[in-house]
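Suppose you are handed a protein chain with no further information: no name, no annotation, nothing but its sequence. What can you learn? This example shows the usual starting point.
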Amino acid sequence: MQVNRKKSAFFQGPIDLRVNGLTGPLGMDVAIRRLSWKLPWSKDGASPSAVRVVMASAPAALEAGPWLLDTGRLPAAAAEGGIAILDESPRRSRERVWWRVMAWDETGQASAWSDLSSYEMGLLEAGDWKSPWLAAPGVPLPLLRCAFRLEGAVADVTRARVYVSGLGFYRAWLNGNPLGDAARAPDYTDYWKRVLYVTHAVERELVEGENVLGIALGRGWFERFGYGDSMARCQIEVDYRDGRRQVAGADPLTWRAAPGPWRAADPYRGETYDARLERPGWDRPGYADAEDWGPVSMAHAPPDGPMRGIACEPIRVTETLAPVAVRQVRPGMHVVDFGQNFTGWARLTVAGAAGTQVRLRFAEVCDETGRVFQAGMRGAECTDRYVLKGGGREVWEPSFTHRGFRYVEVTGTPALPDAWSVEGRVAHTDLRRRGRFACSDDRLNRLHRAIDWTIRGNLMSVMTDCPQRDERQGWLGDGHLIAETVLHHFDPTAFYNKWMQDIRETQDEAGRRWSVCAPPWYARGRNRPPHRYREQADLVWTAAGTLIPWEIYLHHGDLSVLRESAPAVLAHARYLAGRPDFPLIEAVDIGDHLFVGWKQMKDPTDFTLLGTAFALEQTRIAARMAALLSDPAAARECEAWAEGYRRALAARFQDPETGGFGSQTADALALQFDFTPNPGRTLAHLVADIEARGGHLATGIVGTRYLLEALSAGGRFDVAWRVVTAEGYPGWMEMLKNGATTITERWTYWGNWEMNSHNHPALGSVGAWLFRWLAGIRVNLQAPGYRRFTVAPQTPEELDWAEAELDTVRGSIAVRWERQGDGIALRVTVPPGTEATVIPPGAAAGVVRCIGSGEHTFSEPRALDVK
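A reasonable first move is to predict its three-dimensional structure. Written in structure tokens, the prediction is:
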């Protein structure tokens, strides 16, 4: 074996400084602030030995003080890039903190200081809010306008902020300038528990004299699910050099309301916008109110919904798609094909006579006549309407709705072909990309892209199950089944922090959880949702509140995630152990959702096995959390319960003759959750079932998540590879063959439209397997956060090469293998301060430890293919 190491670049300062996963956030109101960074250098063998963080109230003070915090030279345990330093010191409302970091390597060489970064606290106390909630009764989808005059010169302004929220969605402008780049705000929560606001820095938008703040309100989920009527809250603060603070927007008498051009705006039905009703200049100084501008009234938000600053990336437009085809179905009707299923909306450019209405209908597929086919949307109309104002070229896109689609049916446009066009606007919670994968088999590249588009399309402030039909909710089963794959594609640190808080807030005092979070549409309204929905929650779905925090910990190595989650996790474990059916617990009603043959036969996976298996896994995780957080009594308690589940599962469900547990899903869970007394026999039973089906799986969304890992970890990667690449039904290749560009809900592509979304994340759980087994990048469970990791790629003979890159909390891991003559060459890039155990593919495969950062290459004389 030949091993070559490439020396790295010059030792530089830390980069990518973040607070709770965000860069320079405004409006923070959380007690725990996790500071993180990365180390950019990759000198061979270099490891960080120490770090120093300093904080100050102004950039100049970072040089010599006074400091709010100076950690001094912290040892390596706290120094590794990506391991958070917790700043739990008391903070004041509006306080801005500047910070930077430097590091030392193991030789004592100091890095340069990082660039400056900062974070700013929001309005931490209820008394900080001087402005009330405002509404415009009798005015649907209103415009709200507040004019105010600066009490000093713009040159004397040192700080200006707008704190704003709207229920359900809002858009805001200051002097005609849009505030922020969020496409939809605020983020979705259970409004009984928490209402989010956004903080905007507006020093550059202020003008001398009169200024105007304008807000447009949309119904959003708040009104759609019966929480109440739309309302807004906005506070404008301007600080001057002499220490004065001006607060505008607090007096309801300074606000006026009027009907806007939106005639309808609903997340499911779509938008109707009449451009003839626009009010030019209404959000700018100098506008003269028309007679139909009237007063606003004070409103009451949900009684238990405190104001909290938004703490994750916003939903943004991240891409604009051009059509790949436009075809005329009949005179006056065209269908636009974007060639890709995605989540967002269409932007219309059109010229025509005033009063002309253009209708846009959206769908994922077309019927045999070529028109959009909306049966799969169920009760969601997914239709936008735009009424032209006339007078030239007009450009419009909706403000308060979204959906998943590939096709747009356009009617009502002028006859001239150049008089209109449509673009696709891709929108989702804008997470930073983390992983990339490619290989010589383009089918797998297409599968990877489809998974990526599916994840993006369902990142909508919660992880939704689908973006198109009358649902679009945070079903927890789909959410935790795709979580490992999400963590390989994107950095969801802040997103998951927000969603895990949603889940914790809806867990009741007894430890019960919902199957959906934010809570399901059938459990909301003006009154408290009834407890029976928690009692009927599927225990496989509710496992998200335990499994997702654990996945985050494994990938990030951040104990603070466990500290925040552990009380709820332990309470849920105690709830499970205290049920009257302990130690065999039924999963209630969903089961291995959409297994092959769903609704045509009984689920072959016993519901009690499912419920108990996930109770076992959650309780084991609870025990590990307790041990890591120095709570040995809780750890022992959970370990005893876990042993009770394990024994009961083996005794009740294992077939003594075959070693199997009744289905592919049950066998995979028995192997992955370690409740089979004889793993070899259970694995053989699982393989035999797959082979009897011609190499195809029979699992639903639950079993699919664990099947490939059970096979690969059990030494049968060859069978897992056959399952992934199997042509025909059921399987991913059949999905792609039918034209899917995102992952479908069911294995059947066409039909069963009451439940056949074509953009559904759960079956995309195969995405993590591509990284973990074809590229071979696997986190070490004993050294989470990729402090140590394994690189052990599999090399099926059908592939010539495969490569992946994973931007971890400690830096980027890159792996590429390719065939060269009769051998295989492997290249591995290891980030600073980490250690990789590399198991190269080949006949003489051994173990090589690569310590420290650098690029390492391994050459094998001949390949060991997986036959």
